[in-house]
Design goal:
alpha+beta; globular; Alpha-Beta Plaits; single chain
């Protein structure tokens, strides 16, 4: 998705993640919010909300999304978001995380 912008926020419970994902879906149009996913992070049993916005979405709308997700979620750095997604989809931990845990 060329020109798109992804946000990732981690939540301690599935209920919180689903609530915030529903709120994003309610507040943003399909043209603004291209992808909305929830992942379970296997190594800590937290949940990750990934929201991908179209490139033309104004900065103020992105700030609205960050504020909503940041109410009870913790922002995930873009590189970490990719690692989390790979680990969730592929079933393995990223190399840096395996090393951290001594694996």
């Amino acid at each position: 998705m060329a020109g798109s912008h992804s946000l990732g926020y981690e939540f301690v419970s599935e209920e919180e993640a689903r609530y915030h994902a529903r709120e994003l879906d309610r507040r943003f149009t399909r043209e603004e919010l291209l992808v909305l996913r929830i992942y379970r992070i296997r190594w800590n049993d937290n949940y990750l909300v990934e929201a991908t916005f179209a490139g033309g979405v104004p900065a103020s709308r992105m700030d609205d999304a960050r504020a909503l997700l940041g109410e009870s979620g913790v922002a995930v750095h873009a590189e970490d978001l990719e690692d989390y997604k790979r680990a969730t989809e592929g079933g393995t931990l990223p190399g840096w995380l395996r090393r951290f845990f001594g694996g």
